[in-house]
Amino acid sequence: CIDTLPIISNILVCTQKDLNIQICILKAIRNISMESRCRDSLHSLISSLVPYLDENSTHITSLSQVLAAMYDLCRLSKERQTIAIEAGIIPHLMHIIQSNLPIKQFALSTILIIANNSIAQEELLKYDGLTFYVSLLKDQYWNIPALQTLSNWLQDDPIRLSFLLCQHRYITILIQLFTNKTLSHLQFLEVLGTIHTMMLVSP
């Protein structure tokens, strides 16, 4: 069955007018992506799956299946992340999150994971990704993961990112984290430690 996967991208093209078949195929791909021993076999499908993340042309059920599959595929593999990034996954993920769709949790998790990829960092700068990540600092559920992502990005590209982060609008949001009353004591210490690391690596 796995040997037939390269053919599936062609089959998907033929299912554009038959939503039920399309959803069945995408559900099957999603199920395969959940098996760690099968994920490498899906490399050839990644570029074909990314266009299904366009919410304007994809049914929400198909979109949710592809989004979940892409999370599984990108989670532990830099190589698969790179394929997805080069296929244009970043603007799709950002748009899903900004549209506040119910399935945005998978999109958030995926875009935080791939930010550690150097190719993704270049793409993120094209789409104002820094502003996007800083905006997540205002979200009580995603502020700490977003801050850690920014810290990792800063360590990878200290000169360029420290210059950008010194803008007043970004500094203001970073400072506001210290007055965030929704943080627990442990979360506050985590924020403090991450900010300290960011200050140490900044030129």
List the helices and strands and how they pair.
Layout: H1 5-14, H2 19-33, H3 46-49, H4 60-75, H5 78-86, H6 89-98, H7 104-114, H8 118-126, H9 129-135, H10 143-156, H11 158-165, H12 168-176, H13 185-201
* Strand residue percentage: under 5%
Please summarize the sheet with the most strands.
none
SSE succession: HHHHHHHHHHHHH
The outline comes out as elongated
The residue ranges in which pLDDT falls below 50 over 5 or more consecutive positions are none
Number of helices: 13
Query: Helix- and strand-based class?
Result: mainly alpha
- Would you count the extended β strands for me? 0
Radius of gyration in whole Å, from Cα?
Answer: 19 Å
Helix content: 55-70%
| First-residue to last-residue Cα separation | 53 Å
Mean pLDDT: 90
Protein model, in words:
This protein is mostly helical and 203 residues long. The chain is built from 13 helices and no strands. α2 packs parallel to α4. The longest helix has 17 residues, at 185-201. The chain starts with a helix and ends with a helix.
Please supply descriptive tags for the structure shown above.
203 residues; mainly alpha; 68% helix
Short description:
The protein is mostly helical and 203 residues long.
